[in-house]
């Protein structure tokens, strides 16, 4: 097999490295420090995870990962121990009609400033966010909670406005959740939407040590009283990582160099060729999978998000036309170098989803018919994934499986055929006309698209955007790639985009229930363009049938066998309406450097999430072991 040569790339990328690369941990023992790839902060002074803060640092600098806490966590990797009680001592207790939820809290947990955590903090969190629209969890609390009472320091009772068997998921971490606010701090702070919360008090095992005012790094230190936290109470031995650094690490090539120089232990994502070269050349690198594609398959669904509140994307015929102009084989090769797990359904093909949804729905997908206005077609091709496997087998040889079931788990089950003629018929059905090689909208103006991507932070998705933009342009829809960079999240949440390569669907991973994203898709959460859309319905898809499915899911227990039936109803509706175009699982090329730390999670030992932005990474941080052969410094 052939790998790109990185010597020249390394020389060219030195200029991309931050100037502080050797100075950001001055005075801190390297062999006690875990260094994680973070993201440059627009507002480094902002530590209020409960308010937007104009692009603040709450989700990507270690704050939510290392200092916040809530009732429960679910390990997205699944397994028998996936459910973890955190601030709560047991799972939620509902009454018979799911209109009341009782939570029992742990005793003996303290904030880092010495104040004891109690049910007063929980009640304050809910009431404050209801009273202040715009706070991070104001919408789900306002919609669901009629009142909250705390009869004693370790008991909280939620009275709901209507039955909702999924209300506990608001406080259940898969990536994040409703974090508990320190009442004794915020009640003296004035407007909670304007409060910087700097420095933050911590409810988990680490506290803020220092940060770069320019937003390039943040350093966290293990609490002296780490035992007085939920993670401390669950720990079998003291954490060996004393310091955690979240730091910007430049572009994808720069990340390779920094990890080779042992200045970056955990990479969030990088280009596939960088990963392939690391696995070939480095003796100190570990990965989630030992062989191709090496990547970690997040239970996240990169898609073409279509802003359904902006014409013509409010028309499902237009949305389907855009899907049928895509050659997914070119997208898989151009973005992931073939290491893509395709997804035709609106749920990532990871965790339990292949068995719960993809395999059982293959007959339905194969027989699904689409009316183009001129004829009915069956657009699904169950063999596309096998075609991609054949394309890369020449490079990877025996690492590419031949067993059909293994191929499906690695490359996906199938996708939509590229059918430009069918796309043409759908656009004509929607009132579009073609002038030369340019499609015109019904009002006679050119149909152009601004396709938003984040950029170097997620190189695979940026590349996917480039390929799709080329395909749409070649077929008469002039498409320009719009690199949003650090403004990506804000623009998506306010609806300041037409189409975007990102995700609005994330699942629990090892559990078939789709409520992690599905509950937020209810029309009661839809906001006008310009206002912040509560996670996660970024395409602002609104449909009465969707509301009925969500209501049904809320009425059955979390572990009911009917969960997959309701899930399939949703997936069928999403195929018919195509509010977003699912592409593939989010395979993350995220190598670990083992020079200083070992016992990283892997497919063989999936004890924790490993993504730096995931709040679940706290279990990895406290589970790492110091490498006895590490340099002594």
Automatic annotation (TrEMBL):
Keyword match Manganese: no
Entry-linked InterPro entries: SBP_5 (IPR039424), SBP_5_dom (IPR000914)
Organism: Rhizobium viscosum
Family membership noted in the UniProt record: Belongs to the bacterial solute-binding protein 5 family.
Full protein name: Peptide/nickel transport system substrate-binding protein
Domain Solute-binding protein family span(s) in chain numbering: 84-520
SUPFAM superfamilies, alphabetized: Periplasmic binding protein-like II
Signal peptide span: 1-21
Keyword Signal applies: yes
Subcellular location: Periplasm
Alphabetical keyword list: Signal
Record PANTHER family: MONOACYL PHOSPHATIDYLINOSITOL TETRAMANNOSIDE-BINDING PROTEIN LPQW-RELATED, PERIPLASMIC BINDING COMPONENT OF ABC TRANSPORTER
């Amino acid at each position: 097999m052939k790998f790109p040569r990185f010597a020249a790339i390394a020389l060219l990328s030195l200029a991309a490295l931050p100037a502080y690369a050797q100075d950001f941990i001055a005075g801190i023992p390297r062999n006690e420090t875990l260094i994680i790839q973070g993201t440059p902060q627009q507002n480094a002074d902002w530590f209020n995870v409960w308010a937007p803060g104009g692009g603040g640092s709450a989700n990507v600098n270690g704050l939510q990962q290392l200092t916040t806490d809530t009732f429960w966590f679910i390990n997205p990797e699944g397994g028998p121990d996936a459910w973890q009680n955190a601030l709560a001592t047991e799972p939620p207790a509902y009454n018979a009609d799911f209109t009341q939820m009782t939570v029992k809290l742990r005793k003996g947990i303290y904030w880092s400033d010495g104040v004891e955590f109690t049910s007063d903090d929980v009640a304050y969190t809910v009431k404050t966010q209801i009273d202040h629209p715009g706070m991070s969890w104001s919408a789900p609390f306002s919609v669901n909670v009629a009142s909250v009472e705390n009869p004693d320091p370790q008991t909280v009772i939620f009275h709901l406005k209507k039955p909702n068997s999924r209300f506990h998921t608001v406080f259940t971490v898969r990536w994040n959740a409703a974090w508990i606010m320190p009442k004794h701090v915020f009640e003296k702070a004035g407007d909670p939407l304007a409060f910087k919360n700097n420095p933050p008090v911590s409810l988990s095992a680490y506290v803020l040590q220092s940060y770069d005012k320019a937003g390039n790094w943040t350093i966290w230190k293990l609490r002296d009283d780490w035992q007085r936290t939920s993670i401390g109470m669950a720990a079998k031995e003291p954490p060996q990582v004393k310091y955690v650094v979240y730091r910007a690490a430049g572009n994808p090539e720069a990340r390779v160099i920094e990890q080779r120089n042992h200045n970056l232990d955990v990479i969030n994502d990088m280009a596939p060729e960088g990963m392939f070269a690391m696995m070939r050349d480095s003796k100190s690198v570990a990965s989630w999978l030992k062989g191709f594609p090496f990547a970690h398959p997040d239970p996240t669904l990169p898609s073409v998000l279509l802003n359904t509140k902006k014409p013509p994307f409010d028309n499902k015929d237009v949305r389907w036309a855009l899907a049928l102009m895509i050659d997914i084989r070119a997208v898989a090769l151009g973005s992931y170098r073939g290491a893509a797990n395709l997804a035709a359904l609106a749920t990532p093909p990871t965790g339990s989803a292949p068995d719960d949804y993809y395999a059982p729905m293959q007959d339905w997908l194969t027989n699904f018919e689409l009316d183009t206005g001129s004829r009915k077609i069956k657009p699904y091709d169950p063999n596309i994934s096998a075609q991609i496997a054949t394309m890369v087998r020449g490079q990877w040889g025996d690492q590419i499986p031949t067993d059909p079931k293994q191929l499906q788990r690695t490359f996906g089950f199938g996708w939509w055929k590229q059918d430009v003629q069918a796309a043409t018929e759908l656009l004509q059905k929607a009132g579009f006309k073609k002038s030369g090689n340019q499609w015109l909208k019904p009002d006679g103006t050119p149909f152009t698209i601004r396709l938003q991507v984040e950029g170097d932070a997620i190189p695979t998705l940026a590349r996917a955007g480039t390929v799709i933009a080329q395909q749409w342009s070649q077929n008469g829809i002039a498409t320009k790639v719009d690199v949003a960079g650090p403004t990506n999240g804000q623009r998506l949440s306010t609806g300041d985009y037409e189409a975007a390569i990102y995700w609005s669907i994330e699942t629990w991973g090892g559990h078939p229930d789709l409520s992690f994203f599905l509950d937020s898709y209810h029309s009661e959460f839809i906001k006008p363009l310009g206002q912040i859309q509560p996670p996660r319905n970024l395409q602002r898809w609104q449909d009465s049938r969707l509301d009925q499915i969500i209501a049904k899911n809320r009425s059955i227990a979390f572990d009911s066998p009917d969960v997959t039936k309701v899930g399939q109803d949703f997936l069928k509706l999403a195929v018919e309406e195509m509010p977003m175009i699912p592409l593939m699982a989010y395979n993350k090329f995220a190598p670990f450097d083992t020079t200083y730390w070992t016992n990283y999670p892997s497919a063989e030992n999936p004890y924790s999430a490993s993504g730096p932005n995931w709040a679940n990474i706290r279990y990895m941080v406290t589970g790492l072991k110091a490498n006895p052969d590490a340099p002594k410094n």
